[in-house]
Amino acid sequence: MTSIQSIESSTTLLTEKNLTKTLTVGIITAVLVIAAPMIIGAAGGNYWVRVLDFAMLYVMLALGLNVVVGFAGLLDLGYIAFYAIAAYTTALLSSPHLSTQFAWIGAMFPHGLHTPFWIIVPIAMALAAMFAPDRPPNDAPMANAVIRSWTPK
User: Fold this and answer.
1) Domain boundaries in the chain?
2) What are the start-end ranges of the H helices in 4-140?
3) Cα–Cα distance between 30 and 34 in angstroms, integer?
4) pLDDT score for 27
5) Tally of CB atoms within 10 A around 12
6) How many CB atoms lie within 10 A of CB 92?
7) Number of Cβ atoms within 10 Å of the Cβ of 122
8) Torsions phi, psi of 88, nearest 5?
9) Which residues contact 68 (CB under 8 A, 6 or more apart)?
10) CB contact at 8 A, 96 and 134
11) What is the mean pLDDT of the chain?
C-alpha cells in the first residue's frame, strides 16, 4: 500500500464562497474603515485618530507579511525597505521639515515645501522603485530557478 492516495472526484478541497455574503461583508468593512477616522475624530479628538492611523498602518504591514510568508512561503522582509523609502519620501515632501533640514531647499521655499498628495504618491513610488533591484542576487539559486521558469522560451 502506498502512502499517496488519490482524491475522489466528488471531494472538493475548497468550499464554495457565497458571492453575495462576500460582497456585503466587503462593502460594510470598507464603509467602516472609511468612516472610522471621522467618527473617532468627532468622539475622541485628534490623538485617537493618530492611534487609529498607526493601527491601520500595522494592519497593512501585517497583511503584506501574510501574503509573502503565508501564501508564497518565504520569509522575505526586503519589501519593508521600499515601504520605508516611500513613507519617508512622503513625510519629507509633505511637511516643513525638509526645508529646515536642507538650507538650499529652505532658501527656495521659505514657508516649507508642502507638496500636494497626488504629486507625492508618484514621486514616492518612483523613488522606491529606483532602489529596487532589477534581479535577485547571484547567491539566491531558488529565486533564479523561479525566474528562469517564468522566462518565456
Assistant:
1) 19-74, 78-135
2) 19-44, 46-65, 79-94, 97-101, 103-108, 117-130
3) 6
4) 95
5) 8
6) 19
7) 9
8) -65, -35
9) 74, 75, 76, 79
10) no
11) 77
In 3D space, the residue among 111, 84, 87 whose CA is nearest the CA of residue 100 turns out to be: 111
User: Can you tell me the distance from the alpha carbon of 36 to that of 134, in angstroms, rounded to the nearest whole number?
Assistant: 39
Cell 529565486 belongs to residue: 143
| pLDDT (0 to 100) of residue 28 | 95
Question: Rounded to whole angstroms, what are the CA distances from 11 to 7, 14, 15, 16, 68?
Answer: 7, 9, 10, 12, 29
pLDDT score at 16:
61
Question: What sign does the dihedral 54-56-62-67 (CA atoms) show?
Answer: negative
| Contact present, 95 and 120 (Cβ < 8 Å) | no
Q: What is the C-alpha to C-alpha distance for residues 35 and 43, in angstroms, rounded to an integer?
A: 12
Name the grid cell of 77. Answer: 522582509
pLDDT in tens, 45-89: 888 888 888 898 888 888 877 877 777 777 766 777 888 898 888
Report yes or no: 107 and 113 within 8 Å, Cβ to Cβ: no
Handedness of CA 102, 106, 108, 111 (dihedral sign): positive
